[in-house]
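Hey, can you fold this?
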Amino acid sequence: MDPDGYTPEQRQLQRTVREFARREIAPGARDRDRTGQFDYALHRRIGEIGLPGLTFPAELGGAAAETLSFCLAIDEVSRVDLSIALTLWVGIQGGQTLLRASAHGNPEWIDQYVRPIVSGEMVGAGAITEPDAGSDTAAIRTRAVLDGNDWVIDGAKIYISNAGMENCAFVTPLCRTDQGFALFLVPKGTPGYRISPPLGKMGLRSADTRELSFDGCRVPASHMLGGRGSGRAAVVGAGFALTRIHIASNGVGLAAECLDLALAHARSRVAFKRPIAQFQHVQGMLVETAIELDAGRMLRDRAARLQVAGLPFTREAAMAKLYCTETAKRAADHAVQVFGAMGYMDEAPVSRYYRDVRALTIAEGTTEIQKHIIARELGCFDPA
């Protein structure tokens, strides 16, 4: 019996992705961080082993795997390069959105967008956050107005992942309409849609992050994804809940790698004539990380299994996101402390992890927002 309840197929996937990540992704991670350059050839190789298509139907070239299997893959990529791991799961979200939308029209999107995302040739980008609207999605100001057979979009988005990548073909902004919020498909190159230069960041330097502007940007009426007024509910409901499981997996993977690196260093580093792993304060940091990592992994797995079963998972996803990302932040901090001065140097991977991990407690809803969601799900607020 598997101690974590994983199937033999999931364990095999985990091993396969781990071997690939160590062999193909890890060697260039430091240089990508230093230069801020994304490796598109590497992303195509990731596509060749099937990671972007894991959760897509077999008839589209995918593996028809469930969410937990994809999470195990995210774990392994996150262990060596968080920028690549984030780009991976963010990049498929648009494909899943278009796949659902194509069932109600626009079947040409399957060949134009979905299949290339499955194969790793293309990524998508969502666009929700604005200069004055982050977790408060109800404050979004970007507006879409129906004009004849077109929607005209005006507004701005910021901190948007993937939109400026050379293999990103479209963005799906959340916009305010006369009947509520809606998502729209905006192909790259559409007049009136502009992408800023890359934003400078503390970490995640090879992951693309941009500001977007829409100025009289026209798209066909058929480019509304779902009914008018359905967009915000789709995003803040099951959409955010699923991506919070994904970002929890980023935290699980990074925390696991920080623990392994810190433990190996503590065993080999000698001070006062013995390995520092024998000192109680060092042991305390390692033990805390190990316990929190196991607890976080179980929270993540529970949320993923509920999602697969079609059961409510909003609270569990928020718990997993909160706990796993905060665990990863502490794990990176402990790892730098165990490494000492070496951990502060760029030569040590834990230095990069310490910078990269800081985004995890902010993206997809801050830690504070997750607490609010959990409190709401517990019934702490007046239903009225």
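Oh, and this one too while you're at it.
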Amino acid sequence: MKRNILIFVVLILVLVTPVAALAISSENFYEEKDEVFDEWDLCRTRSWNQDGFFQVVSGTEFRPAIVFESLGDNAGIAYRLGQEFAQDYPDFHQRAERIFAFARDKVSYRPDAEQFGFGEFAQNADELATTIAHEGFAYGDCEDYAILLAVMYKGAGYRSAAVLAPEHAAVLVHLPEYKKASRSLSLDGESGWVWAEATGGNNPLGWLPERYMGAQLAAYEVTDEAIALAPSGKSSTVVTPKGDSAGIHISPFFGVILFMGLISLFRRRRR
């Protein structure tokens, strides 16, 4: 009897052990002058300058370099997710909506300072997608949603663009015949671009916040190019999310096993 109780105590401890340890973004980071860089030599804690994750030069000029960590020869799980949506949803508009809903529903908004302890810390698309695959959900802020969506849409056969608004980031997807969007936008004189704002739990694809309708926006259409890894040799550091370290997440499957096992144990004890 004591042995059975011990087994179930161990099982409970395993099941309720915080799973945030799985959410380590990468072990291939290094620190330099209080900033964190990745293996592509992009600064994850800063968006501006040529080594920033968005390479922001001005209010209208930027290049979302971090997106190219998950495209082309660097394509990984996020790009493959887009490809899977293309197989599962042949309808072009439905597929776009399902990809948008995936990012909206699988990622919960959390500021970087709360999650990582940095005022800014960008995750690339594969890091976020890997966390979702392991845990069923992930945390991120606006640029994380945008990076994930930009890559998934490319994998699913769409044209996508990263867009920067004042203190905000989102994605544009090219859907010329999409009728559900609150407003169709133009990029470099080409119409048919739809705003993808996944940071709100009830947002539909195509909803554009009013505060950005007259704002100065900068957009960059992404391609399937990839950026090269930087030479190795620098001391690595590990960035671990702080957010849900005390949270308890039990797989429904193992939860049922635990529940049935406890019932069996108590029945034996009553006899």
